[in-house]
Amino acid sequence: MPLPAGREAAAIQAALREDRLGVAAPVADAYAAAVTAHARLLIALNEQINALEGQVKAHFLAHPDAEIYLSMPGIGAITGARVLAEFGDDPTRYACAKARKNYAGTSPITRASGKVHSVQARFVRNNRLADALQRQAFCALQNSPGARRYYDRQRARDMDYNPALRQLGNRLVGILHGCLKTRTTYSEATAWAHHANPAAA
């Protein structure tokens, strides 16, 4: 027979206020063994992640394009390795910056039919590359004044967060293409010279 509501609540509160909710010793031992096993798995996994990260960094830093990638705002060794791996290192693969942007999926698609005109994001794209470039764009906001101004300008046009970040990523892909083509490292002044004027797009 159930307890009245007031007495049932009091019984629950009393149980919760006890030092602990006791379980049978075999059950407690089983939980302890499971937690210990999970902790050891996590420790081993973290060790393997650290070892893999070290190898990725070593191989990336040995690549002739690494200096250019690392000069870009928002790119560290791991993000740089991801972007380089997805773009590839064939200097003839992308005929122009637009081709690289299209492959990256950062350039928008413009659709027009009659009086209807819309600009949409590309959803058919390399998701691994898109994720790395999104991460780069986000990090670039913290250490590139030019990237920050460019992003803020997109937001001032009533563009939402993700489209503005994607637009910044698109701009950064174009800058990267130019640096790789001319074999020069990133320059904050050169990269954003056109956008230094608030009236410029």
Helix/strand order, N-terminal first: HHHHHEEHHHH
Counted beta strands: 2
Helical content band: 55-70%
Q: State the low-pLDDT regions, or none.
A: none
Main sheet? 2 strands, antiparallel
Radius of gyration: 26 Å
Task: Measure the end-to-end span.
Answer: 74 Å
Major sheet: order of its strands? 1-2
Shape: elongated
| SS content category | mainly alpha
InterPro entries: Transpos_IS110, Transposase_20
Protein name: Transposase
Domain Transposase IS116/IS110/IS902 C-terminal: 68-151
Pfam family, one: Transposase_20
Explain this structure to me?
It is built from nine helices and two strands, in the order H-H-H-H-H-E-E-H-H-H-H. 22% of the residues are buried. It is mainly alpha-helical and 201 residues long. Helix 2 (25-61) packs across helix 4 (77-87) and helix 5 (97-104) packs across helix 8. The N and C termini lie far apart (74 Å). The protein has two domains: 23-62; 64-191, no CATH class. Strands 1-2 form a two-stranded antiparallel ribbon. The chain has helices at 5-16, 25-61, 66-71, 77-87, 97-104, 127-143, 145-156, 161-182, 188-191, and strands at 109-113, 116-120. Pfam families: Transposase_20. It comes from Nocardiopsis mangrovi. InterPro entries: Transpos_IS110, Transposase_20. Residues 68-151 form the Transposase IS116/IS110/IS902 C-terminal domain. This is Transposase.
